[in-house]
Design brief:
3-stranded antiparallel β-sheet, 5 helices
């Protein structure tokens, strides 16, 4: 792979809007494995695709460990098993997110009630 098909460390940070610290951490925990020439890192299309999946997984609320395990399945067993595991993970996370929505809606209702009760107390003080 030639340099034109790879991203530098700085380009990778800019493309994905992540800090150098984040990118180094993803390498440290072996989510990414750039090609190195001395101290310079080059990110191939594989690493770019993995970074896209990592950030998407984080947005959906998956832990880095869950993402790492899911990416390893592809490396070890291929697409089919990775897709099957992904569906299970997605179903579990959808349940978590639905529960969070319920919690947020309940908190909003409680806060509105408290605000309204407080506004009524304030009106009675006039």
């Amino acid at each position: 792979m030639t340099g034109s098909e790879e991203l530098s460390f700085k380009e990778m940070c800019a493309r994905f809007n992540v800090t150098p610290r984040t990118l180094r951490y993803y390498e440290y925990i072996e989510l990414l494995q750039p090609r190195k020439e001395g101290r310079t890192r080059y990110y191939s299309s594989r690493e770019i695709a993995r970074m896209t999946l990592i950030l998407r997984g984080r947005r959906f609320g998956f832990s880095l460990e869950e993402i790492r395990q899911w990416l390893e399945i592809y490396d070890q067993k291929g697409n089919r098993e990775q897709y099957e595991v992904w569906i299970d993970m997605a179903n579990r996370q959808l349940d978590v997110l639905a529960s969070q929505i319920e919690d947020i809606e309940a908190a909003i209702a409680d806060l509105r009630n408290l605000r309204d009760d407080t506004a009524e107390i304030l009106r009675k003080m006039d």
